[in-house]
Design goal:
about 280 residues; mainly beta; Immunoglobulin-like; seven-stranded mixed β-sheet
Length: about 280
């Protein structure tokens, strides 16, 4: 910087589960001098529409999750969201939140955010300007697919049919392959299954024919999923276990991996950027 020159620097802050945001002190230094701005506490006031965004990144694509709180006295419609690094905005068709309610919706897009955390805008119907917020960014290594135990059927002294329910928890259709592994599946009766075009929120059941020597069954279920139409595949393993003579509701499911995005912190801040 030359003598008497100025260079504005910007930093964005967002707060949700907090009464205030603590802004730290800022110091600018040269070889000969320094100047500081003291720390300050800024109260967080409720907004008409509160948006909390989370971006789950996998390779070249991103799952966008929006939690929207509507403090208006009319229904609000969430239209789209965008962030630097996305080739286009992400649409949220039919995402309407009634007054006083909080709702969640997910959608997927190609591209990954260029910043972490990521300054993100969300467009709401009948508002002149998009809302700006800061999205937490999570590196995702497992697919947005959940596994639950649907039913247990004892068919013989050693034979049991375990039916699991597979659900697409993401925001776009998936091609899913389900395969039970381990010692329990009957090698002559059981076959893996491909569930093509499983829509967001849709579920499908998968039966595993098991042959075991005792009542305790431990059954690893490997799930591999890829976006319908092409894209990177992801995999995870859910271990379902229980007593084959007990109700399905008593069985346990232990998912290996970090597929779910963690809850974002109460406040987020971007790094300083200097306007050019």
């Amino acid at each position: 910087m030359g003598p008497d020159a100025t260079a504005p620097a910007s930093r964005y802050h967002a707060g949700w589960d907090a009464d205030s945001i603590e802004l730290p002190a800022v110091t600018a230094r040269t070889d000969e001098a320094a100047a500081s701005v003291p720390a300050v506490s800024v109260p967080v006031e409720p907004a008409p529409v509160v948006v909390r965004a989370t971006l789950s990144v996998q390779s070249t694509s991103t799952d966008v999750r929006l939690d929207v709180r509507n403090n208006l006295d009319t229904t609000c419609s969430v239209l789209e969201a965008g962030s630097k690094g996305f080739p286009s905005t992400v649409g949220f068709e039919g995402f309407e939140v009634v007054p006083g309610a909080t709702d969640r919706r997910e959608a997927s897009t190609q591209g990954t955010p260029a910043e972490r955390p990521a300054l993100t805008f969300v467009r709401i119907d009948r508002r002149q300007r998009p809302l700006q917020t800061i999205a937490a960014v999570h590196e995702r290594t497992t697919p947005p697919v959940s596994v639950t135990v649907d039913s247990i059927e004892v068919v013989g002294d050693r034979d049991t049919n375990v039916v699991v329910r597979v659900r697409n928890d993401g925001g776009s259709p998936l091609d899913v392959r389900v395969e039970a592994t381990g010692d329990a599946p009957d090698e002559y009766l059981y076959t893996a299954e491909d569930l093509d075009g499983l829509d967001p929120g849709a579920e499908a059941v998968h039966q595993v024919e098991c042959t075991v020597d005792d009542d305790r069954i431990e059954l690893p279920i490997r799930v591999e999923a890829a976006p319908t139409g092409g894209g990177d595949s992801r995999s995870t393993t859910a271990v379902v276990s229980g007593d084959r003579t007990a109700e399905a509701s008593t069985w346990q499911v232990d998912t290996k991996g970090d597929g779910d995005a963690p809850d974002p912190p109460a406040t987020l801040s971007t790094p300083f950027t200097t306007d050019e």
